[in-house]
Amino acid sequence: MFERFTDRARTVVRVAKDEADALDHRAIGTEHLVLALLREEGGIGNGVLRACGVEYDDVRNAVAAGDDAAALRSIGIDLDAVRASVEQTFGTGALERAEPAERGGFLFRRSKVPTRFNNGAKKSLELSLRIALSLKHNYIGTEHILLAVLKEERGAGGRLLREQGMSYDRTMDLVLTALKNAA
């Protein structure tokens, strides 16, 4: 499947794995694809995200907070307010993950589980091919991955982007404009 991916699109897939690993997530999700798109500068996907005001740090913080933040919001707890209060009391970065303690000369670390794509990411990567073909493209670029993430409605990446005001139709318009300007 990856033979149709441009070099940038392949890099996005590799960086998504790195993002999942860095967050100690067991699977690569659409949220990791969004983070990777934001890191792959120069691609159309990155340009469209930036034009929509989507920033890496904001998405990374939302992904790191994960579904716990959504669950807390649903019961009226503002995680950002809690974080601000804790940092005011205990200092900036008080909630950052501490390094594992050293015992008996050995450093105990969580064992890494091989990272795989979750169903949403798999579906998005498959959709990226369909989207590329529907646009009569013989390649899959970062723009196709971005559109596929938005089209895969159950994925966390698409949800994060929709929360920032992005929609599939508006993003398609931006992608088509960017493609036209690049030609």
UniProtKB/TrEMBL annotation:
- A Pfam family matched in the record: Clp_N
Can the keyword Repeat be found in this entry's annotation?
A: yes
Which key words tag this protein in UniProt?
Repeat
Matching InterPro entries, A to Z?
Clp_N_dom_sf, Clp_R_N, CLPT1/2
Superkingdom, natural source = Bacteria
Q: Which residues form a coiled coil?
A: none
Every Clp R domain range? 2-181
Q: From the Swiss-Prot or TrEMBL record, give the protein name.
A: Clp R domain-containing protein
